[in-house]
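Morning F.,

Quick status update on the modeling queue. The single chain you submitted on Monday has been processed. Sequence for confirmation:
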Amino acid sequence: MKYMTCLFALFAVMATSGSVVRAFELTRSVNVVVHSAPGGGSDLFARAIADMMQKENLLPRLMQVVNKTGGSGAVAMAYLAGKKGETHTIGLFTTAVIVASLTQKEAQHTIRDLTPVVHLVLEPSIAAVTADSPYKTMKDFVEAAKKNPGQLKQAGGVVTSVDNMFRLLIQKATGAQWAYINLPSGSERVANLLGGHMDLMLENPDKVSEYVRAGKMRIIASLTEKRLSAFPDVPTIKEQGIVIPILTQSRGVIAPPGIPSEVVAYWENIFARLVKTTRWKKYVDENQQETAYLKSRELADFLDEQTNLLRGILKEAGVKVVR
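Structure tokens below.
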């Protein structure tokens, strides 16, 4: 009896002192910060996640997308860094955010200054032209670029994006040169390509699939190790004799620095449940993505590995690295 009395007293002291860890609960809507403009890849991904969260009843509160564009992701990272300890704000990252911190002196923060939450997907890339383009393969495009240095144009996202990294690697491997035109949103890139203002897009398959099916675009290379199951007749870039390191776009979730561990655990659980839903699996399949779920600690290691890998690729492509 004396033992039980002491035990209850101990629990009372722990509860009073705050030693008992309580599960985190949302008390208001969640801001999801993205570095792309409305209609851009991260913006669309965030809105798809918000929609699935609501339809699957995974969150008691709504998610609202906050677009913080500029600096190839540096503005979004600075915004998140300034929200230290904020428990109702998360952000989405892509490979471009890592590259930005490696190449821009003015970038005040790296992704490792923020809290890693979860890794969600990997996205392959393809090379696309209009259906009436004279270029049937990526090799054709490269040969034309060699004959007309700097005259052909590639529609792309921020200069630190995977599509520009591929351009730099291909140019270094082949000696070809063509221009890179930064257009903020995927819809702008598509419109400019279809309008004849651009000659090439290096994009994720989901951005061009509907136009390929409609007979408006043609895919001239898969920028992957193996052919994509959705486009089995499209040869890889290596099959066309262009040997370069293959990059894969990563997408995941980060949060402001200094948030409690129970907040991280909360989001780990929510996203672990999301990626098991039928809606998520359908979304990933339709967009030719691959689910690659990692929890916070695993993501931290992954980000360190990716940073080292991308630093090496940037140097190989001849890009000045500042960190």
